[in-house]
């Protein structure tokens, strides 16, 4: 099994947003979803574009242009979807996050986990 | 273009400016996204400024291979230094002047900036066989323009016309050849991460006969320089390197034929 490139926290958020948005993952919706996941941090659209480009270069996501829509001034969306490599990278990130969660919960107790969970 | 905001969209003039500034490869979806997010002219300007600049920088990063850029810069500077060294006299003069050899780096630096922008703003949907040469011509045009401005201002940083012309000629030949071997991003096959040289592909889609012709011209020039048949002197080592490069290119041309 080929090794996946390591992904940073922001990249994980973008990958998660693409996963949850399914077939409607494009610049505006990805930015809104990542802002929701990263709250209270603010997320700019520019940072989303840069990260999407980087993920595409790494082969973790693929993109295609959709049909033009009137609410966008007759312009197309660039719709993103996870590649197999991206899904695996996200799985690894989720497994790591789960281990971190379990480790912290062991020390700080179930009450803390319940408050945050 | 009336400049007034439309009911449900950004001002036409603002969108028109944004369309010009965003590289063609990202224009469609970025301008569309900003149109969709439009709430007020002020918000739109902020979005366009920050998102637009990030998109341009990202495009520059994606279309610039640092190793190839370094090779281009090296070849450009090498051309100007070689030409300035004609007869071994001018180089000494250059060294003793204020800024010394550094001013020889001004035209290469300007050319590199233009090359970076030309590659970033190249439209991947349109294939242009002469794009590798066009980028260099554009870059050297910018260098000539800046040298002209420096000359008019009477600056000591302006290079003598002979050096500028000869250096630009050499640069055009060598950097164009380099860009045919390592074509701009827009001409590369998508999804390929390996060095372009090792990918079995056409050289930037250029006509094979034209590519061969250019290689032969380069080889003849290099041989001429080696034999002293050119009106200016270039170091023996550089001429030898050019000949080896030419032979490799001709060999590669034959090897890649089906």
Q: What does this 3D model show about the protein?
A:
The complex is a heterodimer of chains A (117) and B (258). The radius of gyration of chain A is 16 Å and the shape is elongated. In chain A, helix 1 (9-21) packs across helix 2 (27-37) and helix 4 (84-108) packs across helix 5. Chain A contains five helices and two strands, in the order H-H-H-E-E-H-H. Chain A has helices at residues 9-21, 27-37, 45-57, 84-108, 110-116; strands at residues 61-65, 78-82. Chain B is mainly alpha-helical and 258 residues long. Chain B has ten helices and no strands. In chain B, helix 4 (66-84) runs antiparallel to helix 6 and helix 9 (208-226) packs antiparallel against helix 10 (236-255). The longest helix of chain B has 23 residues, at 41-63. Residues 1-5 and 191-205 of chain B have low confidence and may be disordered. Chain A binds chain B through residues 26-28, 44-47, 49-50, 53-54, 57, 59, 65, 68-69, 71-73, 75-78, and chain B through 8-9, 15, 26, 28-37, 47, 50-55, 57-59, 61-62, 191, 193.
Please describe the biggest sheet of chain B, giving its number of strands, its sense, and whether it closes into a barrel. none
Gap between N and C termini of chain B: 53 Å
Number of strands of chain B: 0
- Portion of residues in beta strands of chain A equals 5-15%
Low-confidence residue ranges of chain B: 1-5, 191-205
Share of helix of chain A, binned: 55-70%
- What is the averaged pLDDT score of chain B? 76
In terms of quaternary structure, the protein is heterodimer
The name of the CATH topology of chain A is Arc Repressor Mutant, subunit A
């Amino acid at each position: 099994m080929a090794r996946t490139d390591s992904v940073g926290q922001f990249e994980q958020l973008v990958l998660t947003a693409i996963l949850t948005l399914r077939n409607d993952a494009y610049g505006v919706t990805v930015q809104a979803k990542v802002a929701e996941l990263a709250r209270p941090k603010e997320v700019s659209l520019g940072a989303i574009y840069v990260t999407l480009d980087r993920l595409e270069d790494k082969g973790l996501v693929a993109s295609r242009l959709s049909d033009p829509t009137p609410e966008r001034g007759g312009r197309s969306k660039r719709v993103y979807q996870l590649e197999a490599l991206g899904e695996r990278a996200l799985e690894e990130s989720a497994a790591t996050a789960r281990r971190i969660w379990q480790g912290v919960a062991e020390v700080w107790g179930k009450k803390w986990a319940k408050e945050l969970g | 273009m009336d400049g007034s905001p439309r009911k449900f969209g950004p001002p036409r003039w603002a969108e028109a400016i944004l369309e010009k500034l965003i590289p063609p490869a990202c224009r469609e979806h970025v301008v569309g996204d900003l149109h969709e997010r439009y709430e007020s002219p002020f918000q739109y300007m902020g979005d366009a400024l920050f998102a637009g600049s990030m998109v341009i920088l990202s495009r520059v990063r994606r279309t610039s291979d640092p190793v190839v850029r370094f090779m281009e810069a090296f070849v450009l500077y090498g051309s100007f230094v070689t030409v300035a060294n004609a007869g071994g006299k001018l180089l000494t003069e250059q060294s003793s002047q204020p800024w010394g050899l550094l001013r020889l780096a001004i035209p290469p630096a300007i050319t590199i900036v233009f090359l970076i922008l030309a590659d970033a703003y190249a439209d991947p949907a349109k294939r242009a066989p002469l794009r590798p040469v066009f980028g260099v011509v554009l870059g050297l045009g910018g260098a000539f323009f800046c040298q002209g401005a420096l000359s008019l201002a009477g600056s000591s940083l302006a290079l003598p016309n002979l050096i500028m012309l000869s250096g630009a000629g050499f640069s055009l030949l060598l950097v164009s050849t380099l860009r045919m071997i390592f074509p701009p991003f827009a001409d590369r096959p998508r999804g390929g991460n390996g060095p372009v040289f090792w990918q079995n592909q056409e050289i930037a889609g250029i006509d094979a006969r034209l590519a061969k012709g250019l290689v032969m011209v380069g080889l003849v020039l290099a041989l001429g320089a080696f034999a002293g048949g050119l009106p200016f002197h270039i170091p023996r080592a550089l001429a030898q390197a050019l000949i080896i490069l030419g032979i490799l290119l001709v060999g590669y041309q034959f090897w890649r034929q089906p």
